[in-house]
Design a protein that fits this description.
By secondary structure, the chain is α/β, with parallel strands linked by helices. The protein is about 35% helix and about 25% strand.
Length: about 200
């Protein structure tokens, strides 16, 4: 039985996790929330540990602020994050940071998983489930039902309509895509944002 499991796992597409961790932390007054403790463990360490434990993640690339490189590298050593192959400088935007990380992923990575570094409650099981769906469909992401009342508004800020929350979902991470598909979309997004 173990032989068949190894054979099946060997046939699955390789997947690199691209961790977006280069934000400016402006809402936190400049304090990097990713390095703050959550029940004694840094937020980013919790996120990376889930990726480390996920069976379908083969490699982790972290896009971060340069001033955090040393601390993130130390965090990986401390918490045994051996799948982290690179910590790279992030870009001017989230899309640019993820594109830079995607370009640094290993050559054989058929799937790329975009994971927000500030989502420490993600589980290895969820990551594996989303990767399995992405391998079947080309792209997949977890989503949860919206609980808030959502309004569509006009340009002047007045309410146009109340949207039916039963038809709405909030998309979370990881968002996993075929490598070529994601790289092309990110490239288009970055070029579209350039003046």
């Amino acid at each position: 039985m173990a032989f068949f499991k190894k054979f099946r796992d060997a046939q699955r597409p390789c997947c690199a996790a691209l961790v977006a961790a280069a934000g400016s932390s402006s809402r936190m007054g400049g304090v990097n929330k990713l390095l703050q403790p959550l029940d004694g463990i840094p937020v980013l360490a919790r996120t990376l540990t889930a990726l480390q434990m996920a069976r379908r993640i083969d490699e982790i690339v972290v896009a971060a602020r340069e001033e955090d490189f040393l601390e993130i590298s130390q965090l990986c050593r401390t918490y045994g994050i051996t799948k982290c192959t690179k910590v790279i400088r992030g870009g001017e935007s989230r899309a640019h940071s993820v594109l830079l990380a995607a370009l640094e992923a290993g050559e054989g990575m058929e799937l790329l998983a975009v994971q927000d570094g500030a989502r420490p409650l993600v589980t290895p099981e969820l990551i594996d489930d989303v990767a399995e769906q992405a391998a079947r469909c080309g792209a997949a992401a977890p989503a949860v039902a919206v609980k808030d009342t959502i309004k569509a508004v006009r340009d002047d800020g007045t309410v146009a309509e109340t949207l039916d929350r039963a038809a709405l979902r909030a998309v979370q991470t990881p968002q996993i895509f075929e490598s070529a598909l994601l790289k092309a979309a990110l490239q288009a997004a970055v070029e579209g944002a350039s003046p």
